[in-house]
Amino acid sequence: MKYSFRLTLKVKLLLGFGLLGILLFFAYRTVSQAQDANTVTASENSDLLFPSMIYTEKLKDLIETSQYLTTKWTLKAEPKDSKLLSEIESCHGEMYDSLKSQIVKFVDKDLWNDKNKEIYFKLTSTVDTLFALQDDIVDNLNTVEKINDKSNYSFRRYSLVDGEEAACYKRAYNTALRLANSFQKESAGKLETMFEGFDKSEKVLTWGIIIFFICMLAIYLLLNHNLRKLNYFKEKIKEMSEGILPDIEVKGNDEIAEMTQTLRTLVSNLDETSHFAIKIGEGNFSTEFKPRSKHDVLANSLLVMRDNLIKAENEAEERKVENSQRNWASQGLAEFNEVLRNAGDDMQVLSNRVIERLVRYLDANMGGIYIVDDSDPEDIHLELTAFYAYDRLKYAKQRIEIGENLVGQCFRENETVYMTDIPKGYVHISSGLGEADPTCLVIVPLKVNAETFGIVELASFQIIEKYQVEFIEKIGETIASTIASVKINMNTAKLLEESHQKSERLAQQESEVHKNIETLKSKIENLEELNKRESVKYQKLHDDFENQAETNASVIQKLNDKNEQLKDEIVMNQYILNNSAGYYELDAQGFFMNMNARFLNVIVMQASELESHDVRSFMVKEESVKNFDEALKKLADGLIYSALTKYSFNGKIVYLNETYTPIRDEYNVLTKICVISKNITMEIENVRELKRQIADLKNENELLTNKVTALTTN
Question: What DSSP assignment string belongs to 204-270?
Answer without folding.
Answer: HHHHHHHHHHHHHHHHHHHHHTTHHHHHHHHHHHHHHHTT---------SSHHHHHHHHHHHHHHHH
